[in-house]
Amino acid sequence: MTVALSLGGVIVALALLWANLRPWWKGNRDPKALIPYTAGASIGSLSTICVGGALGWGAAGIAGLISSGADKGIRALTGTGPAPVATASLGRLTEYGGAVTVLLLIVVAIMVKTGTKDDRRRIAGGFATFAVLGLLPGVVALLDWWPQTINSVGEQVKAFAEGRGGAL
Prior knowledge:
single chain, mainly alpha, 7 helices, about 0% strand, globular
């Protein structure tokens, strides 16, 4: 999956990150208040490695739309063209990691269905933020543990399902 990511898109993603973290930081810093944003961010980051699937297509589309819109805004304001940035991949999901990703998606979908309007916006913001930031080499380096963890959980679920124990 090739995504034309630009610095403008990264700036919009960082603005979304700031818009979601600032109220939490200025407030009472209750970790539970970050759950909706983090849920969206977890699916957004995993979506960047769901190559060939609907989640990957959605993440690439969102990253492309955000970059394209930001580039148009920057061009209109400054007269300069797009500033492309390098992209990277978090790795790959195994079949078992893919199953866990779908389970996470179901949990997030339930959160969207049962959450408040603000929670839904935070989930969408987290998804959009990490559909973009999850493609940056620096963020990929920081999150290299994430797909490995999802794959490992999938292996543990498989072991449990097959009656071989597992850490569940």
